[in-house]
């Protein structure tokens, strides 16, 4: 057991995966010599050499597209997109190539690549450096999407993502990079698609992922002071997501709130809510309430951004509303 | 064959031996007859979707294909039948795919625009203009890292030069000295518009800008393409990425069914004079191989195609359950 | 009143908008001299000249990005993306530039552009020429998204989209291009965000848009033979969407089905369902059932694609299920 | 000033009159002092987010800015303060924006990376590398269609040359003969990596490929930049799109707070020798304008900035309701 920061856990997962498998390579802007804009890849160039840890030009379309070709050619590329907002420049490679190659070529190939990218606000980085766009990718058959909420999960899920034969989008909330947490020794392993109960409770279920899990936990604490015991489910994996776990929780609590930092409308929470309004309908004793960012670009100004990012108060209010 | 400044000037070589030229002719004829057969099947409603035929461009596929080794990889375009055949795709499974059948190369999920055969390094046709280049660049990275000794080739059309991904790819290939060859099939058209109305640049100029050796060749002369391709493939294999531009002719419409109101009759006759098969026949004659002696092969090809079509027609349709199971590995 | 095809109605809307306003220009691949791959823009070059009707290179990123700059510069560009699958190449321009310019520049400018693009299957065009990606764009604050189901709406909504000061994505289902319908004379005008009741009913509400409206209507006919009267709501506009109309219908029928051609998971229907599971919860007497494409790329083969595209049977079964 | 082959060779002109050079010096000094002030404010935690300073690159902004007319439009980059100031942005509203205040140019919603002032044709800084070019191309289309007689300028860094959108833009501008000028600020760096490790191409070569006249200028010599810019702006205005490459120096880190471990002390001293302000001071001295006579202006600038900062600090914070109302027109 060692106390490790989130960013460092990712670094260690990359290092361990590269040590275990010579076919794992890293690509990205300023990831090699400079060690990554958030220092996530620091030291890996020295450990594994310039052939396997590559600083790329500022050219998102080709570095993601080349990752597809490299993955079809026997490598396991892990490509970094500096801010999730920039996946807009690599959507063809992700959606029309990576996601479809296995299916459209009749199961001839796999595309074992991982795209790591940070999302989320909190840095006042403004409208083009803060977006949470994971709902797009979860809508694309052939992609998997993962979003850890703590260092141990970051390690375990990244190892699982690299081992996965399919293209996996690994989303890292920037606000979590500095977070400390226990990283068991030997470090944990896991598989994709399994949720975790972050806090048990019987009165309402709060489904969340990434940094919003901590918001949900804060809300649960506040609610506990009102004798409302909210169960917090950390999805960890968004595509596939653990429908059984959410349904099982709902069957105990009969109330559902879904919380995430992404824009609420047409966000990941919509799918969770919609699915539960179908398969979980008989369990529902109150409206399904979502908490997400308002329908606006992420504002730059400090006070604006602080109001923009969904708060524990908002999550607690949502739970109260569905219990009312 | 005209070459860019970065390649040592090299006179058109003594030419290929008759045996090799004959084999190339055979390969081109196979592509031609397959395309013609596909045209008929499409007109008869037996092929779903749309298909882009490479008639008039066979020399590029055959010539480049002949210069490649089995371990080499190739990413293709929407007009990819010739590339697949030249790389050595199984004809039965090719026709099965075009007809959307279960035993097709892609189990009937991809069709003409996605024909792939990874077992022979054919990385797939592609429905997205320009998208084959990043994939071939990535394949070249795999070759480089894994030291396979292989080359990755990207075929693309002249129209694709306007796409940003093509530039990003040329830059990366040049920067990282990848075993990469970009083959442009310059047929003068991007769909229904002449490419000179789409491009302010020439590939010669772009290659020079990226410090990529550029080789220009008559894409309808299979001997010239083969000789040039051998040279550039060898260079690429040695870590000197290359650009090969093949001037060629799109004889049919952009896709089958295209009424081509935008084309002149002069163009058609100019193209006829440049027919790659006729050029090869003439070259063979000069080497003492008469047209009559080529007949048996033609008959053989037709029989092979007929058999493939028969099998494809008889092929089972794919089932939804298996298709759904193929989304993830 | 004149019987007009869907494609022709779009053509007329473009012509009328260009005649009415000299700042409207058209951009796209093969839209001018060739008249468009689906002949939608036929004749407009002759009418309005090469300055205003422009064949572009095959370069989606710049033609959409340039449309943003042109819109900020006093023009009203209508740009065509040949297949919706290719918006993957223009997402930065749409999402980071067009959608945000007004907001992030503090209301200084508007971006009055329209992006027209066809989606949907039915042509056996395969995995990269058939996708319905509208959910992505509906998730982006600053964009509007429209998807008409018939010629009159195509005309009216396109005129409204061109008049709108915001960037509007105008989605045309390819299977509808040949559809005939009445185009009133003078042609209809409308505003964005208003749904239409395509068929009234009291037993269940089917919410749909685009080509799937016709699937829903067929399902409603079949259900009527079983004495189930389904109300069919044609959303027409997906962002913003007419929540009040859906809620009002639900308040009468108490059962909800959402049907579209896009992949069900994380699709547009998720938002409708999630919203109704919240604000409409008290009205619901049965599960909300969604009908969408299965979670797989659009397959090429005839039989596969036919099974892939959601059917009237599937919609009818969904209604029966929520009524059970 | 070195010019590409497509522009008639033109000797460095006789130079600017002292009055003009002095004004340019003043503009550069304003940019420098603003940047320095921003650096301090950032270090003190008064500026949210991150900021990229253009210290060492002032001559590009001032020189190109001086060659533009009010009706001309300019799209900028993440390193855009100088461009905005040179185009004539209101300093109070600029500082208000950087501090995230309600009366900022963007009502506190955009900050440093999105400073825009449409009233003076400043189309916005941009957080996406390369994204300013398509926007400027579109602005140039608007100028062309609306016959405004104006030019659209895109500033971009050398690192942006790897982005596909830049190529698509150069091609379209050349093809449509747009009143368009691409200004590359070549400072040798893309973030923390030298651009020669990112690019296999030179802009000279690329411009030649697109048939765009290319002009190379010492980007730290404001006189040279101004003269070159006047020429290329006039050409662009006449429908002959242009590329202007300015060799310049990024004196600070990529962003404020960057410890710059990747840079050598030699580079720092080489940059010091090329300081655009010092170069201008020397040129002014040669024209008889002594350093002492420049002091009053410096004091004026400092006072102006101090007032702007004071106003910005006192500025009201933006409200969420108004922000939300700004998403749609
Ligand atoms: C990204 C993208 N844009 C547009 C298209 C539509 N399209 C298919 S082929 C084609 C023309 C391509 O021209 P070129 O690259 O010269 O190839 P050719 O058809 O001449 O072989 C176009 C525009 C596409 N498939 N992908
Ligand atoms: C599309 C995109 N990729 C990456 C980044 C991150 N980034 C911001 S500035 C920069 C370097 C740009 O270098 P250059 O264009 O030379 O401009 P300079 O910083 O030298 O002025 C990078 C990689 C970004 N903002 N946008
Ligand atoms: Mg072509
Ligand atoms: Mg730079």
Notable traits:
heterotetramer, A: 324 residues, alpha/beta, Rossmann fold, 2 domains, 7-stranded mixed sheet, 5-stranded mixed sheet, 37% helix, 20% strand, globular, B: 329 residues, 6-stranded mixed sheet, two-stranded antiparallel ribbon, 12 helices, 8 strands, disordered N terminus, binds thiamine diphosphate, binds magnesium ion
Structural class of chain A: alpha/beta
Beginning-to-end CA distance, first to last residue of chain B: 45 Å
Rounded to an integer, what's the Rg of chain B over CA atoms? 19 Å
Our count of domains of chain A comes out at: 2
Shape of chain A: globular
CATH superfamily of chain B: Thiamin diphosphate (ThDP)-binding fold, Pyr/PP domains
Number of helices of chain B: 12
Rg calculated over all Cα atoms of chain A: 19 Å
User: At the first level of CATH, what is the class of chain B?
Assistant: Alpha Beta
Tally of alpha and pi helices of chain A? 11
Averaged pLDDT of chain A: 98
Instruction: Summarize the amount of helix of chain B as a percent range.
Output: 40-55%
Number of domains of chain B: 1
Backbone shape of chain B: globular
Provide the CATH topology of the largest domain in chain A: Rossmann fold
Would you write up a description of this structure?
The complex is a heterotetramer, with two copies of chain A (324 residues) and two copies of chain B (329 residues). Chain A is an alpha/beta fold and 324 residues long. Chain A has eleven helices and 14 strands. Chain A has two domains: 2-183, Rossmann fold, CATH 3.40.50; 196-323, Rossmann fold, CATH 3.40.50.920. Chain A has a seven-stranded mixed β-sheet, sandwiched between helices. Chain A has a five-stranded mixed β-sheet with strand order 9-11-10-13-14, sandwiched between helices. A two-stranded antiparallel sheet of chain A has the order 1-8. In chain A, α1 runs parallel beside α6 and α3 (60-72) runs parallel beside α4. The mean pLDDT of chain A is 98. Helices cover 45% and strands 10% of the residues of chain B. Chain B is α/β, with parallel strands linked by helices. The longest helix of chain B has 26 residues, at 18-43. In chain B, α1 (18-43) runs parallel beside α11 and α4 packs across α11 (295-314). At the A-C interface, α4, α5 and α9 of A face α4, α5 and α9 of C. Bound molecules: thiamine diphosphate (2 copies) and magnesium ion (2 copies).
């Amino acid at each position: 057991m060692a106390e490790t920061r989130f960013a460092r856990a990712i670094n260690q997962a990359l290092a361990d995966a590269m040590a275990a498998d010579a076919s794992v390579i890293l690509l990205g802007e300023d990831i090699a010599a400079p060690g990554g804009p958030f220092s996530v890849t620091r030291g890996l160039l020295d450990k594994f050499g310039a052939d396997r840890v590559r600083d790329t030009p500022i050219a998102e379309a080709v570095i993601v597209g080349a990752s597809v070709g490299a993955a079809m050619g026997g490598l396991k590329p892990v490509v970094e997109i500096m801010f999730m907002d920039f996946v807009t420049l690599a959507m063809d490679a992700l959606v029309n190539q990576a996601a479809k190659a296995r299916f459209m070529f009749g199961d001839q190939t796999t595309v074992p690549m991982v795209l790591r990218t940070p999302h989320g606000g909190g840095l006042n980085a403004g409208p083009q450096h803060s977006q949470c766009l994971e709902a797009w990718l979860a809508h694309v058959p052939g992609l998997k999407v993962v979003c850890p909420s703590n260092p141990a999960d970051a390690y375990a899920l990244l190892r699982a993502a690299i081992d996965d034969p399919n293209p996996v989008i690994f989303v890292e909330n920037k606000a979590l990079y500095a977070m400390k947490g226990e990283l068991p020794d030997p470090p944990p392993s896991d598989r994709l698609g399994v949720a975790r109960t972050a806090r048990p409770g019987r009165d309402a279920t709060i489904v969340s992922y990434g940094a919003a899990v901590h918001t949900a936990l804060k809300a649960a604490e506040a609610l506990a002071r009102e004798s409302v015991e909210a169960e917090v489910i950390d999805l960890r994996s968004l595509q596939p997501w653990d429908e059984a776990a959410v349904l099982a929780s709902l069957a105990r609590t009969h109330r559902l709130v879904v919380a995430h930092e992404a824009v609420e409308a047409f966000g990941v929470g919509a799918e969770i809510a919609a699915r539960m309004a179908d398969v979980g309908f008989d369990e529902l004793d109150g409206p399904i309430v979502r908490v997400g960012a308002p329908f606006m670009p992420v504002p730059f100004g400090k006070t604006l951004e602080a109001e923009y990012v969904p708060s524990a108060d908002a999550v607690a209010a949502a739970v109260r509303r569905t219990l009312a | 064959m005209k070459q860019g400044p970065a390649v040592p000037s090299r006179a058109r070589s003594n030419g290929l031996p008759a045996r090799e030229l004959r084999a190339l002719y055979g390969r081109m004829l196979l592509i031609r007859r397959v395309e013609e057969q596909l045209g008929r099947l499409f007109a008869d409603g037996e092929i779903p979707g749309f298909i882009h035929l490479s008639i008039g461009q066979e020399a590029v596929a055959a010539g480049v294909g002949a210069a490649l080794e089995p371990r080499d990889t190739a990413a293709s375009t929407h007009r990819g039948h010739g590339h697949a055949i030249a790389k050595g795709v199984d004809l039965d499974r090719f026709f099965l795919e075009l007809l959307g059948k279960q035993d097709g190369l892609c189990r009937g999920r991809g069709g003409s625009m996605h024909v792939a055969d990874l077992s022979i390094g054919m990385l797939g046709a592609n429905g997205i203009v320009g998208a084959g280049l990043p994939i071939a660049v990535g394949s070249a990275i795999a070759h480089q890292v894994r030291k396979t000794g292989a080359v990755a080739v990207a075929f693309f059309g002249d129209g694709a030069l306007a796409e940003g991904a093509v530039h990003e790819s040329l830059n990366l290939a040049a920067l990282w000295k990848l075993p990469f060859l970009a083959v442009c099939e310059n047929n003068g058209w991007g769909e229904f518009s002449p490419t000179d109305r789409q491009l302010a640049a020439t590939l010669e100029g772009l290659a020079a800008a990226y410090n990529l050796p550029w080789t220009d060749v008559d894409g309808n002369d299979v001997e010239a393409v083969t000789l040039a391709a051998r040279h550039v493939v060898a260079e690429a294999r040695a870590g000197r990425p290359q650009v090969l531009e093949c001037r060629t002719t799109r004889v049919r419409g952009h896709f089958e069914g295209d009424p081509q109101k935008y084309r002149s009759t002069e163009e058609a006759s100019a193209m006829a004079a440049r027919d790659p098969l006729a050029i090869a026949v003439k070259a063979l004659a000069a080497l003492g191989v008469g047209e009559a002696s080529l007949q048996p092969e033609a008959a053989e090809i037709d029989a092979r195609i007929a058999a493939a079509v028969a099998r494809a027609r008889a092929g089972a349709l794919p089932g939804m359950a298996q298709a759904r199971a193929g989304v993830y590995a």
